[in-house]
Amino acid sequence: xxxxxxxxxxxxxxxxxxxxxxxxxxxxxxxxxxxxxxxxxxxxxxxxxxxxxxxxxxxxxxxxxxxxxxxxxxxxxxxxxxxxxxxxxxxxxxxxxxxxxxxxxxxxxxxxxxxxxxxxxxxxxxxxxxxxxxxxxxxxxxxxxxxxxxxxxxxxxxxxxxxxxxxxxxxxxxxxxxxxxxxxxxxxxxx
Length: 191
Fold this sequence. Notes:
Layout: H1 4-34, E1 38-45, E2 57-60, E3 63-73, E4 80-87, E5 97-103, E6 110-116, E7 129-132, H2 136-161, H3 164-190
């Protein structure tokens, strides 16, 4: 049989344990909720942002400095996506920096990477738009698309040159050139 004193001690122990867990949770969550952030915006036009999620990482020169707060389509122009990011206060985001989306591992998730910037440039004020840049992969994709378009034009031109009508014309020109060369040889032989 459990005595009344044991029950009281167990109750006090459980109450103190519950209060300690509650205080720990409040300290951890409160620290995150009360943390101050500088907010910036990035606008991508005609650029897919799939893989970027709210809460995603924001890196500056490879160092984690914040997180993605929101990803929304511009209600006034559906070709634009506006990303809201929160960065640690005092992060020196310069006017000549660019923001790009970079892959995080092989999962397809993306993070915002802020890069560039010079010491001579002024610091951007919070609530400003950071210029959207392009990654090396984007540049390669654009060049590949340009090359593919040029190859299509070349193939169309070759197709035009080698159609039946042009083949007959080329054969006639070669035949007449052959006759002309034969006449020229005969004249040169006589000379």
